[in-house]
Amino acid sequence: MMVTPPAPDSALIPAVGATPAPAGSNADWTIPQDWESYSQEEHATWDRLVARQKEVLKDRAASAFHRGLESLRLSHAGIPNFERLSERLSALTGWRVVAVPGLVPDEIFFRHMAQRCFVAGRFIRRPDQLDYLQEPDVFHDVFGHVPLLSDPEFADYMQAYGMGGLKALGLGALKYLARLYWYTVEFGLIREDGALKIYGAGLLSSFGESQFALRDPSPNRIAFCLERVMRTNYRIDDYQKSYFVIESFEDLRRRTADCDFAPLYQRLADMATLEPQTVLPSDRLLPLSREQ
Ligand code: PHE
Ligand code: CO
Fold first, then answer.
1. Within the chain, where are the H helices?
2. Could you tell me which CATH class the domain 28-269 is placed in?
3. Nearest atom in ligand 1 to 180's CA
4. Potential cystine with 257: which of 114, 160, 212, 286 (Cβ 3.0-4.6 Å)?
5. In testing the pocket of ligand 1, which one of 161, 186, 224, 266 has its CB within 8 Å of the most ligand atoms?
6. Domain ranges of the chain
């Protein structure tokens, strides 16, 4: 059994200025999931999405994702009940899942993460929106993000990211840190036994892009480099032009959590921003393996 460090006392987390929560939400922006009020149709939408995505991800997702799906019982029938899910997850890594009305302010998001609390949308997409949705719903947030929170290294990375977010807000450097989230937590690839696999939630929850990312010849697959990622813009309205590939979650955590970003943010301010499709001579490009 691994030993999970206790979540830091919230008093130790720097305050950056309070954002009042909307009416009907708690002060920390959470709301009750109100699991009993999901309709049969909503549960059925979840089941359809899970069945389809599990099939697509069989040989494509990182092994930690499959392990998390199993140990958290996330592919059992119906939209998960966040309280029961949190009991299982917290026993593994100390993380919990709580519901929020939609996107929350950055500060609120980071504060929760710094306390090992993942905020998830409670609503589910309509049956005619299975393939694409602009706002994160419970399928993206829970099926996409939560399985990896059962991995000890990734769990630590996410908490460190939350603390780093509060720090970046204070330094006016959020744009750089957001790119790191985008190219790891949302669209990251990992190399496992020489093969590229998916671990980013934006890929794990997308029927189309989970296949595109590992199969299409057009996007760049570039070995992860922190400074390189933080210089690179991203697209929110189309498949990515570049993916960044890590070697392991431990390696990712070491390169980020164990590194003071303040001097890096200063350097980045004087560097040109790179467009998503750019390839630099210094980039190490990773080929697709043939069977993919
Ligand atoms: N070490 C980073 C900093 O000094 C914080 C961080 C950790 C950011 C892990 C992202 C991921 O700001
Ligand atoms: Co997401």
1. 40-57, 63-71, 82-93, 106-114, 138, 152-171, 174-181, 201-204, 207-215, 226-230, 249-257, 262-269
2. mainly alpha
3. 10
4. 160
5. 161
6. 28-269
